[in-house]
Design goal:
It is a single chain. The protein contains six helices and 17 strands. By secondary structure, the chain is an alpha+beta fold. The chain has a single domain, classed as Creatinase/methionine aminopeptidase superfamily (Creatine Amidinohydrolase, Alpha-Beta Complex), CATH 3.90.230. The strands form five sheets. A five-stranded antiparallel β-sheet has the order 10-9-11-16-17. Strands 3, 4, 6 and 7 form a four-stranded antiparallel β-sheet that branches. Strands 5-14-13 form a three-stranded antiparallel β-sheet, with no helix packed on it. The longest helix has 24 residues. The relative contact order is 0.17. The structure holds magnesium ion (2 copies). The site of one magnesium ion (MG) has 5 residues, from loops.
Length: about 280
């Protein structure tokens, strides 16, 4: 680990009394390396999703992958969290705790949220998948959630404002005929030398507000969408967030850097090429 990186004071841009960490081009390269570790961990977990596997086993797969790359899980120990991944099933939206006794069944939806620290730099990403074939309702839920994330990522461009991202996420979801819920107590965030930094990124709102989007700003964009009402309850375990009405939820997340050349999706293997293509954006790979 380079002492130079850690001893360097991050460049901070002040907005509305909050300090937003702006990364150099070199630091974004380091975050890309971290992002690829997280991408690999999520891919490994996805490949292991099947009926009968426990969320504890999936957690071990993620941790092994991250450590094999010389990185450290950033969820593990975070405010006492005991997992490398958050494993949230069906009506669980986020922050499910991995458990060796919790086994997946055909038709379950599992959200896998995971992050890593490499050379001091954080990355954070999440995906929701079905065990086996999804129902039409589940497929539509996951599709709109993922598309809303990509719509937000496509707005991570210099010259815009933070809530351009929020509005793009919301508009994608509300354009659907089905009245999906947008979970509103949780959202995206700045990310860099800590997992959670300013600014908070709402998954709804009017465009054209908030901090200016500038090269070097890195954000985690993470819509959480429900089939039913978006009201949430936190379980007695102090972590797991579920829908109050028991309806299913989906959660997708990527870490993105705003660069002079456009959005660079640091936790996507292809840099976001496939997901950003419908928006006419070609990121660096
Ligand atoms: Mg996450
Ligand atoms: Mg996050």
């Amino acid at each position: 680990m380079s002492a130079g990186i850690l001893s360097r004071l991050p460049l901070l841009a002040k907005w509305s009394g909050r300090m937003i960490q702006i990364k150099t081009a070199h630091e974004i390269e380091l975050m890309r390396a971290s992002g690829l570790v997280t991408a690999g961990a999520i891919a490994a977990v996805k490949a292991a999703v099947r009926p009968g596997v426990s969320t504890g086993e999936l957690d071990a797969i993620a941790e092994d992958h991250i450590r094999s790359k010389g990185a450290v899980p950033n969820f593990l120990g975070y405010h006492g969290f005991t997992g490398t991944i958050c494993a949230s099933i069906n009506d669980e939206i986020v922050h499910g705790i991995p458990n060796p006794d919790r086994r997946l069944a055909e038709g379950d939806n599992i959200s896998i949220d995971c992050g890593a620290i490499l050379q001091g730099w954080h990355s954070d990403s999440a995906v929701t998948v079905t065990v086996g074939d999804p129902s039409a309702e589940d497929a539509a839920l996951m599709d709109v959630t993922e598309r809303s994330m990509w719509a937000g990522l496509a707005k991570a461009v210099a010259g815009g404002r933070l809530t351009d991202i929020s509005a793009a996420v919301e508009q994608t979801i509300t354009a659907e005929q089905h009245p999906y819920g947008i979970v509103d107590h949780y959202g995206g965030h700045g990310i860099g030398t800590e997992m959670h930094q300013d600014p908070h990124v709402l998954n709804y709102g009017r465009p054209g507000r908030g901090p200016k989007l500038v090269p070097g700003l890195t954000l985690a964009i993470e819509p959480m969408v429900t089939v039913g009402d978006p009201a949430t309850v936190e379980l007695d375990d102090g972590w797991t967030v579920v829908t109050k009405d028991g309806s299913r939820a989906a959660h997708f997340e990527h870490t993105v850097a705003i660069t002079p050349e456009g959005p660079w999706v640091l936790t996507a293997e292809d840099g976001g090429a496939a997901g950003l293509a419908p928006f006419g954006i070609t990121p660096r790979g």
